[in-house]
Structures are given as C-alpha cells and as structure tokens.
Amino acid sequence: MYTETLNHKLSDPEFLLKKEWVIRQIQFKLRLIDLELSAQHKRTMIQKIEHRIKDAESIARKLMKKGYKITFENAYQKLNDIIGVRVVCLYRDDLYNIADLLKQQKDFTLIKEKDYIKNPKKSGYQSLHLIFDVPLTYKDTVEQQRVEIQIRTVAMDFWAGVDNQICYKKNPAKMKTAERALKNYSTEISRMDKQMLELRRNAER
Ligand code: 0O2
Question: Which residue lies with its CA nearest to atom 22 of ligand 1?
Fold first, then answer.
C-alpha cells in the first residue's frame, strides 16, 4: 500500500525527467573529466559509466531498514542515492583523480564522502562514494538534486557484482560460507589492484 503510493509518485513524468536531467549532467561532467585525465595521462581513464534511479521497492526497503516511515518525503529527505551513478576505472590512483576533479566542480556541492577503499565494509565491499547536491535550474528556480556517485576499479566492480548476486541483501543465515569466501576475495582483489598499479607504474618509468 505504502509502496504503491510511492511507486505512483516515483513514476511521475516530471519527477523522472528531473532525475534523467541530473544523470545527463553528471555523465557530461564525467566525459569532460575523462577527456582531461586521458589526455594528461595518455591512456583511457574511465572504463564504464552506469546509472540507475532507485525503484519504489528498493526505496521502501531502505527506509524501513533505516527506521523511517515509507513516504515520498522521507525518500527525498533521508536517502542520498535515489539517483546513483557508478564510474569504473582500471587503477586505484585513477579513481581518486576522478574524485578530485568531481569535487572541484563549482556547481556540485559535496555533502558526504565515504571511502570504503581505505575502510572496506565488513562484507569486504570497496568503493569510493561521493554524495553531491547538483543544481537543476529551470526558469527562475534552482532545485538541488541529491546524487550518489560510486567510483571503483574493475576488480572492485567485479567483486561487488558477484556479492550483489550471491550475498548482499540475501538471507544472512544461508550466506555464512559465501560471505567468508567473498571477504577473502575482497582482500585478494585489493592486493591485485595494488599489484596492477605497481605494474603500470613500472611500465611508465
Ligand atoms: P542498491 O541496490 O545499489 O540500490 P548513507 O545513507 O548514504 O550514509 P547508505 O546508502 O545507507 O548510506 O549505505 P552505504 O553502505 O553507503 O551503501 C550505499 C550503496 O553502496 C548500496 O546501495 C550499494 O549499492 C553499495 N553497497 C554498500 N555495501 C555493499 C555491500 O556489502 N555489497 C555490495 N555489493 N554493495 C554494497 P543500496 O541502496 O544498499 O543498494
């Protein structure tokens, strides 16, 4: 019932159009950042950009998990990731370069930064999360739109994809073995990321 009302509001054409507009703005910025960094470092920087608008069911689940009533207002005020953009690159130093350039954008306001690479989650999840307010200007009004940008390496993305399918948000009782294995693989992936970076740095010498 709550989810139905939420679903109705989330499928409002104006709501969706605004979210699409913000996603395009971010994609555009990321392409410029990619051009700048790729030219500077003489190699392709961004491997992949993905995006999604969180659906009503996922919003409702997250609001409940955080202890909030399932309302459109709470979704707007309490959740940072109704709009999510993911950037994937090859090396871990690149992702910090991309993040630095994103943070320099005058029109983006950084709300929160969560470095799950320096401090991986208990599950082993690694990524850099930047939460921004992005202005949407229409006629004489400016409306801030909250966005979460996840930046990670290909290896981190591989790990998160497998975790998503096997463990994340699944029944914890059944997951013990897979969780343990994934935690170990997360350490392996971190080691491999560092080795790949070392390999590139040696090749650049
Ligand atoms: P989905 O399916 O991506 O929509 P905040 O309120 O911003 O401080 P938040 O959003 O409650 O914090 O939590 P957090 O831990 O920063 O996670 C945000 C997103 O990171 C998640 O969104 C996932 O996309 C990803 N994530 C976090 N932990 C894990 C993990 O252990 N495994 C995987 N595979 N992904 C993870 P959602 O809404 O949970 O999911």
Answer: 81
